Amino acid sequence: MSGLKESLQTFHKIASSPKEQLKKYLAQDKKVVLCAPVYTPEEIVHAMGMIPMGTWGADVEIKEAKTYFPAFICSVMQSILELGIRGEFAGASAIIIPSLCDSLKCLGENWKSSVENIPFIPMVYPQNRKADFGKAFTKAGYERVIADLEKATGQSFYDAKLTASIATYNEHNAVMRQLSDCLNDYPEVTAADRNAIFQSAFYMEKSEHTTLVKDLIGELTKAEKTANQKIKIVTTGILVDAADLLKILDDNDMQIVADNVASESRQYQVDAKPAETGLDSLAGKFADMDNCSVLFNVDKAIAEHTVDLVAKYQAKGVIFVMTKFCDPEEFDYVMIKKVCEEKNIPLLLVEIDRQMTNYEQVRTAVETFREILR
Amino acid sequence: MSNEVKKKSPPDPNSAKFKLGKIATDAYVDAQAAKDRGEMVGWCSSNFPVEIPETLGLAVCYPENQAAGIAARGGGERLCNISEDDGYSNDICAYARINLAYAKIKDTPEQNMPEPDFLLCCNNICNCMIKWYENLAKDLNIPMIIIDIPFNPDYEVSDAQVAYVKAQFMEAIKQLEELTGKKWTEEKFKEVMEYSGRTSRAWLAATSEAKHTPSPFNGFDLLNHMAVMVTARGKKEAAEAMEVLHKEYLENVETGNSTFRAEEKHRIMFEGIACWPYLRATSTGLKSRGINMVTTIYADAFGFIYDDFDGMVKAYCNVPNAMNLEHARDKRVKLIKDNHVEGLLVHTNRSCKLWSGFMAEMSRQISEECDIPHVAFDGDQADPRNFSEAQYETRVQGLTEIMESKKGGC
Ligand code: SF4
Ligand code: SF4
Predict the structure, then answer these.
(1) Of the bound ligands, which one is closest to the alpha carbon of residue A81?
(2) How far away is chain B from the Cα of A74, in angstroms, using its nearest Cα?
(3) What is this model's ipTM?
(4) CATH topology for B26-182?
């Protein structure tokens, strides 16, 4: 049992100190490339011998970024820019920003004039991503990222190395899926713990993270299964990492048995399949990505996916964690709500942003929701 | 000093204003007539290549145009509320909220349009459009044809982007032919392309007459006429009406007249979509201070001039909201310099994340390069709850004072 505790503590430590991780890698003479959300081609950075480091912002006060973004842009974008301007990413070689939503497009444009010494590398993804012409465009986008990375870092790209990195990432995907399933049998692992495991993945070289997660799974399977009295829920949204929110879920005996959260399981749904080249394989992976508010899907598959998760994991309800001002999610919420209503699945909408300090309303809402689910 | 042009009622049927107004109204009437004849009718996003439905002979309506009309006539808040009751956040673009509400209630006293049989979506102005049309397609259970034109982080459009977008144009044409049974012909496309070119050239020429002092027109005219540029560019009547508009502006230049009915003391550029619910308040706030809004990015944005299919594809990749900051800035700088603009008034539009998301930095760069002041006010193109007349007045007054002091008037 102590092994399990220690293992979880390691994840918490890493998840709460991205800056330390950045420093650690720099001290090892590694180059670090920041990866803004979402679907940033980390495999390419990895294949070039560098550390891709995810950044989804932080719960910081927005001051400097205010002179760039109006108040109605999501706090993920605001805080990434804020951290950049404040020099929190000092030492990073570049930032890759995909342009999958309107706010992400603006982040790149603002970054250019506000953050010194960390060049902006755009990754332009197609929305018509499944057809051959879409895949060709994705591939061209990756080629451009490679060229920019070579210029910014002096590192070189070899397709064979990419194939190896893809294998590393596929393995990590599989381990993260396995972990999410495995946790369902261990209610003592809290929502906060679960989040730390997912979050830490952004700040580590992926095979290191895979090893840690495998160890954790090993510890878990050694531990005795206890009776599960918790209320099983599915979460959906962009980001569910606010400590206060996670504590409220834990205080109310809620167990996240599955999620469709962008910073958690959403990114691990799809593996890259073998193809002629590593880049083709990666473009194919993006084409297969789905169930996401920033990826075009005329069938609104995200709604069905949500209720499927509920059925598969026998959850009692869904908590939609809305990142304030995230319009892609705001549109999808309505469709998810409709399908949940049709299927009589209780759904709670919780709106949060990174500057929120008072969670009392959220607490009350979750308490009421718990009564409904019981 | 400009003389006032007084030709109120009855409207002169030969005037550009009348002709342009008629084209805008006819669009709805024609679409309804097509629907009544049993033809399929589409809803189309504003910067979807009109050449496609026009060449195929398909009747389409423009939800953004309708939403603007509804908002200008006071229905914005009512319709927004309907969408919000369905769960849509009030952070979402008000055009989308109004249209999603209309799709549900199907009838408003302000402006109706026929129910759609298909949707034409192009996201070169925002990705919000994709989300909005996805939800429409799902709710109405109709096909959605999408042409994805990604935001271009570079100054020039890459070959890869042209190839990607062109493939989608072809795909969209094929899908529409199959869906509606109409056929694409090169001959008809050429004709549409020619009208579109003529309309665009006349528009660019007309709007560029603002280079004269005083300007022969009030820039608020552009906000009204732009609907025709967006929706009817490829029609013969549009080309003719725009040519009349240019002629009228030329005449004004010669006679010293203007549709700006006040003394033109200052000339500004307006940035953003109009606040339709407060058109009068926003325009009076300027006019009362002798400020003429002589140009907006619309003056440049709708000049779609190209010689062939590939040129058309490229033109659609180069619309304002698809351009990077530097390219977007330079276009504005040119308009400011060409038209002797003395100040920049920026509408920070709560509805439009992309348009407002890097405008602060762009405004600073423009101000610096052109040596003109800029101020911003908070507003919304269609939701009346997001505008404060008092704040607008204060900001415009602030801008006026700086412009006056720069002229040595203090
Ligand atoms: S997807 Fe949502 S949360 Fe993410 S950057 Fe865009 S608006 Fe912000
Ligand atoms: S106002 Fe902005 S967000 Fe709304 S449809 Fe137009 S471009 Fe898109």
Answers:
(1) 1
(2) 10
(3) 0.97
(4) Rossmann fold (3.40.50)
